[in-house]
Amino acid sequence: SKFGVGVASPGVVALVVAPPGGPGARCRLHSIASCRAMGYGTGVHNVVFVVMFLRGVTIGVVGASSMHLAQALGVPQNSLIAARGVGIVLGPAFLSGLIGKMVWSGNSQLFLASSLALMAFSEIAIATVSSGALGYLVFLIMGLAMAMLDSTSDVVMMTAHREKCALPLNVLHALYGCGGMLAPYLFVAFATRIWVILAAAHVLLSLGVAGRRLQVGKPMGWKAKIRTGSAQEAEAGSPEGIPPRVM
User: Fold this and answer.
1) Sign of the CA dihedral with 154 first, then 155, 156, and 157 last
2) I need a labelling partner for 154 at 20 to 30 A (CA). Which of 111, 165, 238, 246 fits?
3) What are the distances in angstroms from CA 122 to CA 63, 137, 140, 158, 236?
4) Mind listing the pLDDT tens digit for each residue in 5-20?
């Protein structure tokens, strides 16, 4: 890779070198922590905030519409919610290791885009499903997608900001709360189209993240960047962390 970072001392400005016109050209002079916090070069870091807002909207719409859905499908409302809960529980249990590897290996874009696409699929399916058995399956899939998005968001924030992750995590939770507060009003205003609207929003985000991956590509030599970045930060006395562009 033609990417390098130089560190003189803790907190001192570092020089980021990248090919002309590449993503590094927009981040010439930054501290390692600053570049790292930007999720620089992939767009995943910023998209996570939008994802969490939509996550709040989705869960609010589920609460507002689940009774109607249960009656239409002829199944108990609590059973539908329980099916989603099973997905939320199983997702982190089986996928947490994979999420960590995807982030550290520079593939957070692919995992996030896939999770958003899965969420969009479940939302479209909810709008069209007509049987109780399929309703349970769709809510299970939605729970898995929610778990994937939640876990990815937390891993990205904590990996990027490390010991300073409290503020960004609180912002994520605040956006989730705002989405949840707006959800009932959106459901009342767009009752017949709300799931299609949410699916379209998640599809657009998925395409945006995937398009960014096609534009920028996977960070090259990420293992060397991790070793080099860790050694430089350790020598400078700053906490060990993930270098720029790996996220």
Assistant:
1) positive
2) 238
3) 16, 9, 9, 28, 47
4) 333 333 333 333 344 4
3-state secondary structure of 5: strand
- How many of the other CB atoms lie within 10 Å of CB of 199? 21
Cα(42)–Cα(109) distance, integer angstroms:
7
State mean pLDDT over 214-238: 53
The Cα–Cα gap between 166 and 185 comes to 30
φ and ψ of 14, to 5 deg? -110, 150
- pTM, two decimals, is 0.72
Token pair of 187 as six digits: 């459901």
CB-CB contact of 247 with 156 (8 Å): yes
User: CA-to-CA distance for 24 and 9, rounded, in angstroms?
Assistant: 21
Query: How far is the CA of 179 from the CAs of 46, 184, 203, 223, in angstroms?
Result: 17, 10, 18, 37
70: tokens are: 């249960």
φ, ψ for residue 6, nearest 5 deg: -115, 135
Asked whether the predicted pLDDT for residue 199 surpasses 90, the reply is yes
* 86-121 residue pLDDT tens: 999 988 888 877 877 777 777 788 889 999 999 999
